[in-house]
Amino acid sequence: MINVCLTYDASEAIERNEISAALNYRTITKQIIAHVDGQRFALLERLTHEVLTIVMEHGAVRWAEVEIDKPHALRYAESVSVTLEASRD
């Protein structure tokens, strides 16, 4: 499971109340799916880093956190997850 949390300046979208002024989550989601689909990653850390890179390629994103959660990755554990974050100065 991939979880993405991000911040961007949404003031224009809020003021105008228009989708065109907001960050396009669908575009980001499609890019992530296209990158991950059919690929194999030896490390959750690598996958998490690559997804975070995709999110941060969008100039409007000021900060992002990506968590990759792998259910049943370890015996006796419900899941294992890796979380990475990045921000712009």
Automatic annotation (TrEMBL):
Gene3D superfamilies assigned: 3.30.1130.10
Gene Ontology terms describing biological process: folic acid-containing compound metabolic process
Pfam families (UniProt xref): FolB (PF02152)
Enzyme class, UniProt record, top EC level: isomerase
Keywords noted in UniProt: Isomerase
Keyword Isomerase: yes
Family affiliation: Belongs to the DHNA family.
Protein name stated in the entry: Dihydroneopterin triphosphate 2'-epimerase
